[in-house]
Amino acid sequence: MQQADISPSFSQSLERGLAVLAAFRPDRPTLGISELGRELGLTRSTTHRYVATLATLRYLEQDNSTRKYRLGPRVLDLGFSMLGSLELRDVAAPHLRRLTDMTGHTSNLAIRDDTDVILIDRVRGRPGRYHHLEFSLHVGSRLPSYCSATGKALLAFVPRPDLDRLLDRMDLVPRGPRTLTDRSALLAELERVRRTGLATNDEELESALRSIAAPVRSRSGEVVAAVNVAIPWSPAAMTELVAQLGPTIQATAQQIAARVI
Prior knowledge:
Blueprint: H1 12-22, H2 33-40, H3 44-56, E1 60-62, E2 69-71, H4 73-84, H5 87-103, E3 106-113, E4 116-123, H6 133-136, E5 142-144, H7 149-155, H8 160-168, H9 183-196, E6 199-202, E7 209-217, E8 223-232, H10 238-257
Antiparallel strand pairs: 1-2, 3-4, 3-8, 4-5, 6-7, 7-8
């Protein structure tokens, strides 16, 4: 938690409290005092003080059987307040519903947060067409950007020096049977996204799941979000799916962009 060029007004206590909250992730939703202390480089007593304060304020809650902690309900309040304040989400909502109605597939709106993407809205597709991953994803879910269609649609338009710094911090581990784990291959894929304006995930995030995404631009031209449809596996070739669904997804992204400041 070292900081360069710290402002005199910087609060280390607040930084540490937020670092405690940030340590909880989907792959490890519960943590003990010792685990938190090791990760954050804090003594046990200091960690306990921050955790006790956050638990009192209901940002953390303790499991009585394991004595470990998990995120509390007030964290959800913060998240939903943030999502509710996003004009982009309000603007996109009717267009996502229309996209799902037209395709039958689940549609998502995502933004980038560092090396991940966060789903800020989603409209589920018709019953019976779900991939099992669909049941575990929700508004606020976080996905790795390198192996998701929305992630690639967002990464492709990051300036190259910034992109290189992001890739330096990504562990390109296999997530699905076709995950791109070679940096050069991923860069070539991102160049294709820049040329075509469409990104794909062909069983890269998880087996039997495909998706197609398009970037959403602000009026200044900056890519601020990505919209996609998630497609359970079918015998159709990915090129066929792109030809069939790509123009509709791009049109949806453009309709959202037309109303984004």
